[in-house]
Sequence to fold (395 residues):
Amino acid sequence: MKPGRVIILDLFGTILSDVSNKYEKGIDWLCREILTVGTEYAAAKRVAEEYFRANMQNRTTTHKEASLQKQLEMFRERIGFRDNFPLSEIEYGFFKASRVTAIESGLMELLSYLKEKDFSVFVMSNTIFSAETVKRLLDAHGIGQYFNGVYTSGDCGHRKPGNKFFSYVYKRIREKVAVKRDEVIFVGNSLEKDVLGAKRFRFNPIWLSADKCGFGEELADCARVENLLECKDYLERNFLSVAGISKHYSVSDGEGNRIVVYLQGCDLKCRGCHNQSTWNEFGGRIMSVRRLVEDVLLRLARAARNVTISGGEPLTQPKALQTLLTEFGRAGVDVCLYTGREFEDVSDEVKSKIHYLKTGRFVHTEKTTTKGYYGSANQKFFAKGANGEWLKKDI
Fold:
């Protein structure tokens, strides 16, 4: 099984909004279409209330979940059905009768971006409905093809923020994608159920909340976005494809002793490159800039806070690279950047945040082992002077 990039999206309030949600309409539909002919609404309501008291009253504290299909079985036992209807069909009919949903603004843009970046996308929802019903709902909205799996608390028997539901989902995702917990991104709108639950399980949470005046910022301690378009932008700017981080200092990747960060993905693909495994954009692991910086800082000695960013080609991830350079700057790290592009092709914004720069494609016919830091003799090395000017250095 190949490593992959995974994102989990909460359902209601995150990717779908409720236009209308009236449970009583579902009960009325059962009386008209499913239950024994002549069943009065009051009789059906009593059965529903009995089920609620027995199975749903304390679920927010126990994190145990009920399921609509079990409730329907109770209806069949106490009142009876007028025909031998499949429970899955009754459940979907109940949903359509009781709820009307709409796609949240920005969802299509987010899903298109995730597909382009080869994410495996999953849905995880606290709901009494089964995954089968949710899948049909997503298909009805024309978005089912974007999802690699759907998981509901109704099927699991446990709810967010409890660990049992997160463990249930993670286990099933691992059957499809080789991914570590801290590589999984989770997007949800509830501070307690989604954000804090995901954090406790060691997922990477993103809090979808437009209420900037609300509480919870310190509790969440994670990204907070107002909408799904902002979520897309956050992912672009704050998550990197990483091939690896050197375990020890290198003396051949820029001046001084340096920890080397190898970013994944290269559009240059120079003939004879010794690091061809980094070419594929989707071959590395997805890491948040925050996590990457934390990992690097743990490896840096106090007297040698030097980092070289190599690849792959770092400039193929421009937005996230800018964020990474900003965070290294805040941490007082001396940064050297290796790129296969020419000096003038590197933006002034990038140059303002680094201290050394190696440029030029690798040319296998000019390969050298005598010039420090160079793979081929055509490449150039620059250092930033005291006044911010760039000086070419012969090494």
About this structure: The two ends are 44 Å apart (CA to CA). The chain has three domains: 5-17+101-237, 19-100, 240-393. The chain has 15 helices and 16 strands.
